[in-house]
Amino acid sequence: MILSVSRRTDIPAFYSEWFFNRIKEGFAYTRNPMNKNAVSKISLSTEVIDCIVFWTKNPALSFMKNLGLLNSYQYYFQFTITPYNEFIEQNIPKKKFVINNFIKLSEKLGKEKVIWRYDPILLSKEYTIEYHIKYFEELARRLHHYTDKCIISFIDFYKKCEWNLKDTSVRTLENSEIIELSKKLKDISDLYGIQIETCGEEIESDTIGINQGMCIDNNLIEQITGKKIKAKKDKNQRPFCGCMESVDIGEYNTCRHYCLYCYANINKETVADNSKMHVTNSPLLIGKLKHTDIVKERKMYSLIEKTLFD
Q1: Cβ of 69: how many Cβ atoms within 10 Å?
Q2: Which residue segment(s) compose the domain that 142 sits in?
Q3: Alpha-carbon span 219 to 119, nearest angstrom
């Protein structure tokens, strides 16, 4: 299986000790987001985990130092760097520090294992098309020696986003604006030798020249593992998402970056309350098992196709 760590929260940034405790013990518990008393036990054995996909905006120093504990695993990073200020991204360090961590990670792992995410793309009075063109070029110039690929997507106004952004001028993009900006970003990425793809977007590649990408990418996983992967498309994602199926061990309403555009948090207060219940040695990311919880072991299996010589 592919392990996602995590679409729901930034585990490398905020829950490093917990994650490596789970690796050492060989399993984790996750609550069903739709049924809080339904808990799955997830095996983290290398026998069933084919690859780990990490999602982060700035991995903690403790996380970077402990990567040696993952020597038995195959993995890569989806690393988001966007050009927004501290009002929009309230708890992300200054960009120069984030960029420096991106570079350190790439130098440690290889640039094919560190994917640059430039998402979500939003527009406002401050964040214009011209603004994005300027700062995308600046980021591409700084990062192009340290990544092979950039994934872009455009903001979707989920209910949580609408509430958190209600006092801003942030808005979605018109189709014509998406096409205009995408073409400009494609030109810049081509200039710097970075492959650019979209994430979950309905964009005609013939019009713009940008293909739909896969954040959980079986082609990249096959390249990293040297094995053929037999994976299905993830039916739980958006219609235009190309990602392969995976198991996520994160939990919503736990990311302390406090980005106003985040679909995974209701509000800052809920995140703060949940964070207080985090226990580093608990199998659950937040809190401990309750007597009302029902734990079931999830069936886990390798997606690697066996050969006559395996």
Answers
A1: 12
A2: 2-297
A3: 22
Q: Are 283 and 25 in contact (CB under 8 A)?
A: yes
Separation of alpha carbons 263 and 7, rounded Å = 10
Asked if the structure places residue 59 within a domain, the reply is yes
Strand partners, 154: 121
Residue 69: closest CA among 19, 9, 30, 6: 19
How far is residue 14's CA from residue 93's CA, in Å, rounded to a whole number? 13
Predicted TM-score of the model (pTM): 0.94
Tens digit of each residue's pLDDT (9 = 90 or more) over 118-152: 999 999 999 999 999 999 999 999 999 999 999 99
pLDDT in tens, 194-227: 999 998 677 666 678 888 888 899 999 999 999 9
Classify the C-alpha dihedral 125-131-133-135 as positive or negative.
negative
Within a domain: residue 136? yes
